[in-house]
Amino acid sequence: PARIAIRGRAGSGRRTLLAAFARIAGRALGVIDTAQLPRDADRFGRGLQLALRRAQLAGLVPVIRGLDEVVFDERDGGEIAREVCVAHPGPIAVISPPDVSPPFPVGHVVIDLPTLSETERTGVWQRALAPTRFWLRDHAGLAARYRVGPGVIHRAVASLAGLDPQLPADDRIDSFLRQSRDLRLADHARRVDRLATWSDLVLPPDIMDSLRELVGRVRHRRTVFEQWGMGRTMATSRGLTALFQGQPGTGKTLVAGAIARELGLDLYQVDLSKVMSKWIGETERNLATIFDAAEDGQVILLFDEADSLFAKRTEVRSSNDRYANLEVNYLLQRLDSFEGIAILTTNSGGSIDPAFKRRLSFRLSFPFPDEDTRAELWRAHLPRELPRGGELVFDVLARKYQLSGGYIRNACLRAAFLAAQEETSLHQHHLERAVALEFAELGKLSTAGTID
């Protein structure tokens, strides 16, 4: 009996292709969603066997989906499905993400659906809209922002029902694609709505030069990879991954927000507590969901304090070490194929596995601000609208207090509230008092040391 595996990203047209094959044979598809089967190994196998038999009796071609998301304590869903599929007398098809091994013995057919290039996506948008009365202002812009497959594109076009065809469909389609992406990311990451601007940052010139290069690398990817042919010579590392390392408060997270604003992309901060799991294989599946959604939706992923996830591999002394190392190995493999944008922040780059560092596009070290930079930070964090009672001497504050940018920002906000509580303008003594309170909260009796 026929055994067919269709592999590709979500929305790449896997089910559509199988439906076309089934129509040629005069059959329809019977989709078996493994997420709906029992969640223990024995009952899962029996449930899958029963679902296959029902599809066969109904004259349907059974299509198994979601096997890569099924894991039990000692075995994964693919291993159990392999035993069931060997015993089933009729045809079976499986749809799965790229690089997942089909649950079939030797002799099956595998079809891999490639990811479309930006130019190819533009063509699919044009062809999908051609039979309709709807139109777009910017096909190429949509193709650049969303790295989705034909299946998603056709669903997005179908969502235009009821729209006035006299109006451009760009906003409606953009909203559909963003909502679809947000649903995939919602369980593991949160969107950062308040993004910094370049004027909020005070950074050394060499760091700013590197950040401009980073932004340019995103903007000109189509030119370099497609028009100039670099995509044919770069099989891996086509995405952009950056490591920002430096002491707390040196501006790493703010910079990620400024980059997102500059590029017009959404910034999603990954919640590592919701990603990392004690269950075998669950962490890898969560990460796969995040990376896939980020690639499709062209968002920037922010892994804040990434040490716990990207830590060095350890000598295997227990099963916990072995599974932790497997997670790191998965991440290394996924970063090689990742074509989106990810920013990792860490207080100390020494704990990051060296293999990750070799795969990074950029590694930037954010220095602790010197005296001149601290004075500029004090100025930057006090807006012009803030009423001031006399001259504020920022040079004195910078010389007296060795604070990172994050603590200077906190002190400025605190001083403003102190002045508002006293119903007066902001004075130098409010700033001095705010700094003292920052030191006191950290258990420091003297303001002469460094807060980092």
Walk me through the structure.
The radius of gyration is 27 Å and the shape is elongated. Helices cover 47% and strands 13% of the residues. The protein has 4 domains: 110 residues, P-loop containing nucleotide triphosphate hydrolases (Rossmann fold, 3-Layer(aba) Sandwich); 68 residues; 176 residues, 3-Layer(aba) Sandwich (Rossmann fold), CATH 3.40.50; 81 residues, Helicase, Ruva Protein, domain 3 (Orthogonal Bundle), CATH 1.10.8.60. The longest helix has 19 residues. Helix 2 links the parallel strand 2 and strand 3. The protein is an alpha/beta fold. The strands form 3 sheets. The protein has a 6-stranded mixed β-sheet with strand order 6-8-9-10-7-11, with helices on both faces.
Q: What is the strand and helix layout of this fold?
A:
Elements: E1 3-7, H1 14-24, E2 28-33, H2 41-57, E3 60-65, H3 77-87, E4 92-96, E5 109-112, H4 118-129, H5 139-145, H6 150-158, H7 170-185, E6 189-192, H8 205-219, H9 221-227, H10 230-233, E7 240-246, H11 252-263, E8 267-270, H12 272-275, H13 282-297, E9 300-303, H14 319-337, E10 341-346, H15 354-359, E11 362-366, H16 371-380, H17 394-400, E12 402-403, H18 405-421, H19 428-441, E13 450-451
Helix pairs in contact: 2-3, 4-5, 4-6, 7-13, 13-14, 16-17, 18-19
Share in helix: 40-55%
**CATH topology of the largest domain, what is it called?**
Rossmann fold
Give the CATH H-level superfamily of the largest domain: P-loop containing nucleotide triphosphate hydrolases
User: How many helix segments?
Assistant: 19
- Residues in β-strands, percent: 5-15%
Distance between the termini: 66 Å
Radius of gyration of CA atoms, rounded to a whole number: 27 Å
Mean of all residue-level pLDDT scores: 86
CATH architecture assignment name of the largest domain: 3-Layer(aba) Sandwich
Shape: elongated
How many separate structural domains? 4
- Main beta-sheet strand count, sense and barrel state: 6 strands, mixed
| Strand line-up in the sheet with most strands | 6-8-9-10-7-11
Given as residue ranges, the uncertain stretches (5+ residues, pLDDT < 50) are none
CATH class of the largest domain: Alpha Beta
Decide which structural class fits the backbone: alpha/beta
Query: How many distinct beta strands?
Result: 13
